[in-house]
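Recap from last week: sequence in, structure out.
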Amino acid sequence: MDRKNLNGLVFGALFTALTCVFTMVIKVPTLGTNGYVNIGDTGVLLSAWLLGGWYGVIAAGLGSGLADILSGYPAYAPGTFIIKLLMALAAYKIYKSLGTKANGKDAAKAVVYIISAIAAEIVMVLGYLVYEYFVMGYGAAAFPSVISNSVQAGTNIVLSLVLIAVLEKSHVWERAIQRR
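Predicted structure tokens:
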């Protein structure tokens, strides 16, 4: 295994753990279903933006799915894995395609982060609606969770934007990846 793949695995494992912890640290039950609101999407978005590629996408899905299993929500784990994986993929693809145009421009880069975060959170809200409606069998009772998931989305967008700004200002991430 070459150094690049080893570093990808190590950072992937780190982001898997961070996403799992972010998801488990605050859990507020949702309206209408047996789910919960959390701040795990912050880990999902940071995985997409900082790790990117398949390492970031898999870390987002695994960390979130693992949190469901460890928190006593195993019925949600398969859906969560897929939804969070798709969230990270959407955020990464948008960030990668628009981010190159914003290179070096702080305001433009912030807009790219916002657009990619909003797109990812739309994937989350719609993903859980479909999962709860069809797979979990809640039917129309799944619709109130759109409200809870939208609150989760907004909270995580703000939190992830604050954290990415802090990480970029401190250059911690750049120093970490330079050692790779």
